[in-house]
Specification:
272 residues; alpha/beta; seven-stranded parallel β-sheet
Amino acid sequence: MGISIVGCGWLGQPLALTLKGFGYNIVASTRSLQKCTTLNDLGLEAVKFELGDDLNIAAVSAIFTSNTLILNIPVGRKALTPNSFIMQIHSLVEHASRTQIKQVIFISTTSVYGDQDQVITEHSPTMPVTSSGKTNLIIEALVTEAFPKCSTIIRLSGLVNHDRHPANYLAGKSNLPNPNGKTNLIHQDDVIRAIYLVITKNLWGHTLHLSALQHPTRKDYYTWSAAKLALPAPTFIACEQPAAGKEIDATYSLEKLGLTLKYPSPYDMIEA
C-alpha cells in the first residue's frame, strides 16, 4: 500500500522512514530540491511540492497515486496568510478526493481547544483563540467534508524529542507568564506510533488527540528540565494560584488506538 506524506520535515521524515521500514511505499513531499535529494538518498520517493503549485502537473502527480494521504503541513508559514493557507489546503484536499487517495490523516493541534481551564477530552467543545488554532479547526472541517468516513484528525500537544525540547527555548528567560499552567506534551516517537496504528487498524472517521498522561506545572517542569539539560534556569512571575489551564486527557484516543505511550510523562522525555 502506498502512503503520501505532504510535509516531510521534523515529524514527517522520521514518520516516512518508519512507515517505509514496515513495508509501505512512501511518497514524501518537500519544498526544496536539496531536501528532495536527501529524501531520495534515504530510499524515499521525493516530490518537490509547495502549497499553491499546480496540482495537475506530472511533477506532483505521484502524491496522488497512494491509498493514504498524510497532511502534515504546519499552519503559520510567514509566506501565507491564514486565508491563503486555508484556500490552498482546500484545493489540495478537493483534488485528492478525485484521485486514487482513499484515506486522509490530518495532523492538527490541541490549540483548537483554546485556553479552557478544565480537563479536555476528545469530546470537549473547540474554542480556538490563536490564529493557528482557528485555521487548523477550519482545515479539519474541510478534510472531514471531503473524506467524511475515510479521514482521521490527530490533534497533537506540544511536540518533543531528544533534540527539540521547550526548555531549550525558555532557558535563562525571566518573568515568564503562567507559572502554574499545566504542560501538555507528546513525544515524537509516540506520535509516529499512533499514526501507524491509525493506518494498520483502519481507524477512519475519528478525531483523536495525543498528550502525555502527566501534566506538571510550567514552572516545576521547565525549571527541572533546565537543570537536567545543564541550561540556565528560567524564572517565572510570582503567582499563588493553584495549577490551572487546559489538561489534555487522551485516555479515549489511547484506548481506541490500543497505544501504550513510550513516554507517558514529560519527565521521561528529557532523556529520550
